[in-house]
Amino acid sequence: QVSWIRHSDLHLLTVGRYTYTSDQRFESFHSPHTHDWILRIKTPQPKDTGVYECQISATPHMSQRLYLDVREPNTYFIGGPDMFVDLGSMVNLSCVISHTEKPPTEVKWFHRDTEISFRGPRDGVSVITEKAEHTTVHLLMQGARPSDSGIYTCVPNNAPSAKIKVHILQGNQVAGLQTNKGSTHHFLSLYVFFVYIN
């Protein structure tokens, strides 16, 4: 018999094909023509994060532990929650969408709660999308002007929205402030969904 145990509360989840928990999201099944017994968790949630153990009632006794890390979709701005930009320079707002099953098929941008139109009165506006481990969407606006100040919202169709407040600086009106002049930032992020423990 093959059993699955959750270590966070030492709860016996399944034995063979039988489920021993009231949480019906958990089920065990045997892959036909193989020796594989799989624990399936429907609609996994962050609370499911932790160590799980597969035990085989044989002689000698065998077991295998694994660590499951469940991440919720997340959206954030690089350099947020405030960005300071010199008058006349390039505005580069970088919205990062992470921990999604697939990249978003649509990302909308809002300025002061009004959707940004790329064919609107504000010229020099463009969007660049990078799809890698995470999806990064850059909103670029040439020639920053006072009317560009305010709160911007990035709204992907498969993750929460994120906000950033843009301040347009005119001359040296704010002393000792580090400004953004369209410089390039490099970020390295690493996350592990499954870690097997010997």
Automatic annotation (TrEMBL):
Organism: Lepeophtheirus salmonis (Salmon louse)
Coiled-coil regions, chain positions: none
InterPro entries in the record: Ig-like_dom, Ig-like_dom_sf, Ig-like_fold, Ig_sub, Ig_sub2, Zig-8
TM helices/strands, residue ranges: none
Source domain of life: Eukaryota
Full protein name: Tyrosineprotein phosphatase Larlike [Bombyx mori]
GO terms (BP aspect): synapse organization
Pfam families (alphabetical): Ig_3
